[in-house]
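Progress note, project year one: complex with N-carbamoyl-L-aspartate.
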Amino acid sequence: MEFQNRSIISIRDFTREEINHVLNVSQTMEAVADVGTNVLKGKILATLFFEPSTRTRLSFEAAMQKLGGSTIGFNDADTSSTKKGETFVDTIRTVENYADVIALRHNLEGAAVVAKEYSKVPIINSGTGAQEHPTQALIDLYTIQKEKHQIDNLKIAIIGDLRYGRTVHSLARALTNYNVELFLISPEALRIQENILKEIKTKISVTEKQNLEEILPKIDVLYVTRIQRERFPDPAEYAKLKGTYRIDKKMLKTAKKDMIILHPLPRVDEIAPEIDQTPHARYFQQVKNGLHVRMAILSLILGTTK
Ligand code: NCD
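Model obtained:
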């Protein structure tokens, strides 16, 4: 298992053993985060975000600083030379000279692969188009493990925009390393792409449904996602689908008492705020876990943890 100088492009590049190692290191980071450390002093993380972000970028930056490193970057490509017409590749070939690791978010699928090809420092895919968001999947798994004490033998439902949701694609793939039963709930127009469905079905039990009601009583983990408005070629199509699913208290009457609800956030209206006060809600714990998992990722890639 070698993490030093390794790029993180797809969750598919991880074995179960490697994922478990990241989760174990993440746990050790909880105590480190409380006090901070200096192990990454002198190291620099560049965050190049060509798309909006709150949690991913800020948690990567916080994680780097908790470990004693520092950060540079942009969160609006219009303030960078991209605006003047600089190519993406030239941007990468510039930033690699200033940073020891690059966290990249881009609207184009494949951007992380291209960056990796040109960069001499490791690239962390922090969301590429509708494709993947591998570090979010690691956070999701860590949260499930922490809250349910295992990942195997769970019944997990993912509801929402399964077509464009990159966190969904990474999580579904990550779950194929475990013995889980997966339920994919979405309106017809937001079904997961056929090729991804095929890929995960060869490894785990997957059931597609349009409604949650019928299966809800047996679900252990409910993973809710936002409709990815920005990915719709036609705004009218988004308008039609908006509000087609919403989790509220009434709906959860038949849920197991210990069922947990996760969401990569941001939420729009798919989880009613009244749910936040229930014992099901774990999405803000998930946010907190993001800091620890990203600390683990940075310390593994930069070689201060084996
Ligand atoms: C997600 C993303 O950017 O894919 N956010 C995140 O990183 N947690 C989810 C989303 O935007 O809906």
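The chain has a mean pLDDT of 97.
Residues 41 and 69 are 5 Å apart (CA to CA).
No further modelling is planned for this target in the current period.
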